[in-house]
């Protein structure tokens, strides 16, 4: 067999990109466990681990077929279950490499749900929903846009999945979190928000850096082509989008709240990345930066909107990051695309098509998630008992704790060393959280 | 015998410990506590939501001493713990009926 160097390079690139998207799951795991409380860290990690397994298997059994199989009515694919007939499909690279890359995407979409519903969801309910996401809900939208379905026929543009991956995950998360209700203690009796603090922003920051790194593969690999010069431009737009998002959120929250909230900065990087994912191949560098900056500011407002207006408790900000910024990223294509965007003299038609895609995706994912979750609720229930929630899901669902004898726990009988005076400045604010206080020089 | 119970600023624990040691105090019990007094918490925001911390972190030190040592210890404590700002803490003194050393069953002053 003759070696085609172009195909070889592209295959290698797409596989490396797939590994980078795989690594993003460690990023999700760190962000979500960092933003949760210590008593729920094992549970968060277990969900993330299980989602990669479930997503990969579900995408092998059915997801890939529904997404890329022979088209039925522009709505869904109908062939290729268990990857049968895969070798006859042509993606420009070996089909198996394409499948591996796509399977990592499916798992990414499903895992977005995990952070939003953390700290009170029943493990089994979450796992069943993850199957539904990766096997059915995500592949259907994927088919519309990437599998030759009706949205792609309309000219809807979503390069690497602001809508297909991120919004789909986020709308599933929104419905799930709304049905679950907020965590105990999230709202005071008068309805105002009582913050529940992240237990480890270092873990959150590590996770965001890993996700940012992985995103270069997420967007870059979506070229399916390691030989095109466009690859470098896509990576450059991705770098600027993340940079803009992080800075946009930090500065915006600084102005709005009087200090720079790191948790917003971390969310903002991800929001900026989601904000350029749809248009990474059609945005100029300036357009990518603008889309990222706006996504960062939008993210801050979206978190407050969800918390204070919708009163949906999203532990990690998954819906603002992947949903609100996903919508923005999809619209940004219609505004900033150098070919067809409103700001480049392209008129409103592309923007209109993008809006149709956003609304259709919201309708499908919202309805399908609602049905799936109501069925799951009827069979196994969605939420742990009040007692289990207060005790923490780590003990209730797994019979173990995350940090062993590392003295961080709020387990009732915790012992803490007073020899390390560093711990003295910790405030136990009813939920094991800490904060710096006026007039207190915190020793660390 | 008296129990001297001081609630102080956490960052003063090293200084207070040294000061107590300098006036001959060997036995002390230290606990992390939270509480409220004249010092007020300041409003903060977390992820866009305002909150205030009304219970502030303090360190509580308990020392058992002979009546004649109390004033010396109190002086040392105040000197080491005071910053002059609101929130320096308080000292409570109460009588102790009996002290028993677990190892030897000694009682009273010998057990302190």
Summarize the structure.
Chain A is mostly helical and 444 residues long.
Protein architecture, described:
The complex is a heterodimer of chains A (444) and B (112). Chain A is mainly alpha-helical and 444 residues long. Chain A has one domain (5-379): Ammonium transporter fold (Orthogonal Bundle). Chain A has helices spanning 5-35, 41-68, 95-116, 123-146, 150-154, 162-180, 201-220, 230-257, 262-277, 285-310, 318-336, 349-379, 386-391, 393-398, and strands at 71-72, 76-77. In chain A, strand 1 (71-72) and strand 2 (76-77) form a beta hairpin. The longest helix of chain A is centred in the first third of the chain and has 31 residues, at 5-35. Chain A is globular, with a radius of gyration of 22 Å. Chain B has 112 residues and is of the alpha+beta class. Chain B has one domain: Alpha-Beta Plaits. Helices cover 20% and strands 35% of the residues of chain B. Chain B is built from 2 helices and 6 strands; from the N terminus they run E-H-E-E-E-E-H-E. In chain B, strand 3 (43-46) and strand 4 form a beta hairpin. In chain B, helix 1 (13-22) packs antiparallel against helix 2 (70-81). Chains A and B meet through helix 8 and helix 10 of A and strand 2, strand 3 and strand 5 of B.
Which helices and strands appear, and what pairs or packs with what?
The complex is a heterodimer of chains A (444) and B (112).
Chain A: H1 5-35, H2 41-68, E1 71-72, E2 76-77, H3 95-116, H4 123-146, H5 150-154, H6 162-180, H7 201-220, H8 230-257, H9 262-277, H10 285-310, H11 318-336, H12 349-379, H13 386-391, H14 393-398
Antiparallel strand pairs in A: 1-2
Chain B: E1 2-8, H1 13-22, E2 29-35, E3 43-46, E4 49-52, E5 56-65, H2 70-81, E6 89-95
Antiparallel strand pairs in B: 1-5, 1-6, 2-5, 3-4
Helix pairs in contact in B: 1-2
